[in-house]
Please model this.
Amino acid sequence: MGKTTYFFIVGGLLIAAMACALVLLLRMEQSMGRMCLFVCLMVLLLLSMALLVGAYRLRKDYNYWKKRYDDELLTNVNELMEKTTEIALQNQKIDRLTHEVDRLGRVNSNYERTASSLRHELGSTRDKFDECCKLLADLRERAEQGDKMKASFLANVTHELRTPLNSVLGYGAIINNPAVSEERRRHFMKVLQKSCDRFLDTLNDMLYYSQLQSGDITATATTFELSAMLCNLRDMTQKKILESGKDVQLIFTNDLSGKSYICGFEAGYYKVLSNLLDNAVKFTNKGNITVSFESVEGCNKMRFEVSDTGIGFVSSKKETIFGSFNQSESTLSRQYEGTGLGLSICRSLVSLMNGTMEAEGHPGVGSKFSFELPLLDIAADDYDLYYSVEKMLERYNDSGSIMVMSPYVEDYNFVNSFFGSYGIDVVRCRSLEEVEVLVASKTGLNIAIIDLSTSPADGLAAASRVFSMNPKVRFAFVRGKELDQKSESKTGLYSDFVIQRPLSSKSLSSLLSTC
Model:
């Protein structure tokens, strides 16, 4: 409210109070004197004035304190607004900091995940690096072992080739000496023949191994007579034992008198078994060599075992002996002849025929080699073919014979294993001179099997000579994958049959049916 209004209210109140006092005094005039009344009025007037002044002072003080209070209140409000603004700014900063902390938390989480992934990858990389280092070390060790084995192989091959060559050269010079007696000359001829066979066996092993490594040999499945092949292997092995003069007994646990036909890679069967038997004879000085076979897994596989009582080998050398150019001990390559390729060829052939091969041995006790090969189904035509072969063989009498002219002893062994079981004489010739001697002495020569894969000119010359001496002889030429046109045209002059390598019982059976 304003000052004027304030004074009007106070004045009105004072006037009303004085009027009331005056009325009261006038009623009390009778009992009081005029002087007293005047005094009372003056007192009332002073009191009214005092009240008016007091009210004014009170109003003035009130306004002062109100203004001061309002100023302080305004100051406090302004300060409060400033604080509120500061708090709002602080809250904004806090919000920004909170968002930054959250962002940094997310960044830190991503960093931790990335760091963990990097640590895992680093660990994996370290493991792979360690594996690579081990692999490189293993490869280096294998390379060094390979270099050592190759050096040892070259030394062995040099020894295996040089020894028979020196024998041939030395004994050849002695034989040419006219002072040498006929008996000693025949002895030296046998030594020469043995040296040549050893030289040829070494070359054949090297050639066969290289063909296996290059994939030139294909496991062609044919039907063949297992018992006949094993009989031939038995006779050949027994002959080697007798020639070596060792006190060794050869035992075949199975009955080989009957005829049993199976389907498989015949040349592979023969090569594996002949190599295992050759090793058994080589490393056994006294005791037994045992050969056995049986059908396993419901007649789906055939298992062969060749065991001996020879020098044996350490179990830790089991895988080493199957390596190329290896024997169980490096010193054995000098004590026992050989290039160390035999068992490597055996395992490669067994693997080529989808089979498995194992070895067991104990030093000084002996060793046992076994392999399993899957048996394939025999076609009905093959049964008919073999039955007709047996009928056709009846026309060959005891005086009949078959000539084989081939530089490979395996060819002769294979042909002999097939026809020998029927009592037919199979003779091997190595040169044109031997062919002439055979044709002149053998009146019952029926078939001449001549190899053209190595030297077509020599083979055709031998065929021409045989034909001129005995036109009734039937010819069969064995050739490899390639034969030039000139030789092809000449073979037609004599050939009744052409056999593609590898030799098989089926091809020999077809030869009989054609001739």
About this structure: Confidence is low (pLDDT under 50) at residues 329-333, 482-493. The first helix runs from residue 3 to 27. Residues 3-86 form one domain. The longest strand covers residues 286-296.
